[in-house]
UniProtKB/TrEMBL annotation:
PANTHER family: BURP DOMAIN PROTEIN USPL1, BURP DOMAIN PROTEIN USPL1-LIKE. InterPro entries: BURP, BURP_dom. Residues 1-25 form the signal peptide. This is BURP domain protein USPL1-like. SMART domains: BURP (SM01045). Keywords: Signal. Residues 62-279 form the BURP domain. Pfam families: BURP.
């Protein structure tokens, strides 16, 4: 999915490659193979284009607030990711021992045994683009390479003394079918929160999360969905009520056939994304 959002907070990572053990390097290399498999799956899915849109089926995640009605039916994409083949979440100590910067790209490609022309190299380059480009107006952003760094940044945004609560998309019953029609079963529940930090996974040999907070009115929802294949999902979704500052080329506008500022843009979160709010949010 072509999603190029935008960061002004830098990681304080230690460049200590020499302290990585050989066994840890083998584990990371194994994760690189898993990432290659994930990219192959994505390439295959991109060839299965819906007749109504010459777009990647994975873009069937966008909607508008007008769709938030009981009985509303929408074609939606929800992928199942196997935790055993997903990139590992490193500890802060491990993550800080590996440079995370585009300036180190040649060294990293050699370290992870990727050629410069490989799809993995392109994915890593794109991840650095997301992490290093300047934030949009009104946006704060950060790329977390460990759970500890993610929690630290979420607390910096939401309040250092704030207890955090996390929301995700939960699969109650899920078949291997990724794209199907889903029906909203009951009135969506809005999670009232003064600020919202959303963390999205980025392709990398180990787990990296693009976390951001957008100023302005954003509404978080939990939505009960029933798939035509019998799937049951408790999905997390967010509605960005003001899109005037968004890039005119943002893919959401193509999918929804709207213009920046003309309509709120909502989207569902994949199951491996995390949404952080103060625990007092209802």
């Amino acid at each position: 999915m072509e999603f190029r959002p935008t960061l002004s907070i830098l990681l304080h990572a230690l460049l200590l490659f020499q302290f990585l053990s050989e066994s840890r390097a083998r584990d990371i290399a194994k994760d690189c193979d898993n990432m290659h498999g994930m990219l192959k799956i994505q390439e295959k899915e991109q060839t299965s284009i819906s007749p109504m849109e010459s777009l990647n089926p994975q873009l069937n995640i966008f909607f508008t607030p007008k769709d938030l009605n009981i009985g509303k039916k929408m074609p939606l994409f929800f992928a199942i990711k196997n935790p055993s083949t997903s990139p590992q979440l490193l500890s802060r100590e491990e993550a800080d021992s590996i440079p995370f910067s585009s300036t180190n790209l040649p060294y990293l490609l050699e370290f992870f045994s990727f050629s410069k022309e490989s799809p993995q190299a392109k994915a890593i380059e794109d991840t650095f683009f997301h992490c290093e480009i300047s934030a949009m107006k009104g946006e704060s952003k950060f790329c977390a390479t460990s759970l500890e760094s993610m929690l630290d940044w979420a607390k910096e945004i939401l309040g250092y003394n704030t207890q955090l609560k996390v929301y995700t998309t939960d699969f109650i019953k899920k078949s291997p079918v990724t794209l199907q029609n889903y029906t909203i079963l009951q009135k969506p529940k809005e999670i009232l929160a003064p600020k919202i930090v959303a963390c999205h996974t980025l392709p990398y040999p180990y787990a990296v999360f693009y976390c951001h907070m957008q100023k302005g009115e954003n509404k978080l929802f939990k939505i009960s969905l029933l798939g035509e294949n019998g799937d049951r999902i408790e999905a997390a979704a967010i509605c960005h009520m003001d899109t005037k500052q968004w890039n005119h080329d943002h893919v959401a506008f193509r999918v929804l056939k709207v213009q920046p500022g003309s309509s709120p843009v909502c989207h569902f979160f994949p199951a491996d994304n995390l949404v952080w709010v103060p625990s007092s949010s209802m």
